[in-house]
Amino acid sequence: xxxxxxxxxxxxxxxxxxxxxxxxxxxxxxxxxxxxxxxxxxxxxxxxxxxxxxxxxxxxxxxxxxxxxxxxxxxxxxxxxxxxxxxxxxxxxxxxxxxxxxxxxxxxxxxxxxxxxxxxxxxxxxxxxxxxxxxxxxxxxxxxxxxxxxxxxxxxxxxxxxxxxxxxxxxxxxxxxxxxxxxxxxxxxxxxxxxxxxxxxxxxxxxxxxxxxxxxxxxxxxxxxxxxxxxxxxxxxxxxxxxxxxxxxxxxxxxxxxxxxxxxxxxxxxxxxxx
Length: 275
Description:
Blueprint (H helix, E strand, L loop, with lengths): L2 E6 L5 E14 L4 E7 L3 E6 L2 E5 L3 H13 L7 E6 L4 H6 L7 E6 L2 H10 L1 H4 L7 E5 L2 H6 L5 E7 L13 H10 E10 L7 H12 L4 E8 L7 E8 L22 H6 L5 H6 L2
Parallel strand pairs: 6-7, 6-9, 7-8, 9-10
Antiparallel strand pairs: 1-2, 2-3, 3-4, 4-5, 10-12, 11-12
């Protein structure tokens, strides 16, 4: 008997993969969580029936959340990751020696617990002495920490359930206030094929708060449509003005110094969304 999982990405479209084993399937205090082993993508974390990360393609997302913003800021010493309990973004943040402290705030401790057990190649950095892990509400953490961080990264699920507040203008205003005077933030902002309205809404809200706003993309096979967007809001530094020759070569599989600015070159239909 074969077991297949389908993420219904719209009412009429989904992505399907063959499952070898189910490690965990439970309802936490916040969401339905499953950890499974797939034939094609290795171990995979699912939240509310949506693919969050897999062993095979996780590096794209985690590198592209972390490195463009950290190489845009000249001295990112204090970093906050909201969500991201799997630890992948933290792993990439730790590749930057300037970072003195990285704080991870995830509302669901079960995500952290099971990621450490079943996704050790992703979650290994959570034990690093530079990292503080808090099981808490990221929205409230930002509200309570004014003028604290150089860089804030929002590694959230889609805007449903506990992540709904992380896609609001009030949240972006809170991020602005939690950043230092030259701070930058970045958030995953879903895909332009099925969530065009969301990208437009986020772009409009962030532009009302931050003077510099840039959108960039990456290809992530297990995310809806494969084409994924990220939105960066900055008080001072423009990622398009970074000297690529000054970006060091680090241990990555997707991000490179040459890709830094190239990622901000958008297909025309995505450009049109955010005009």
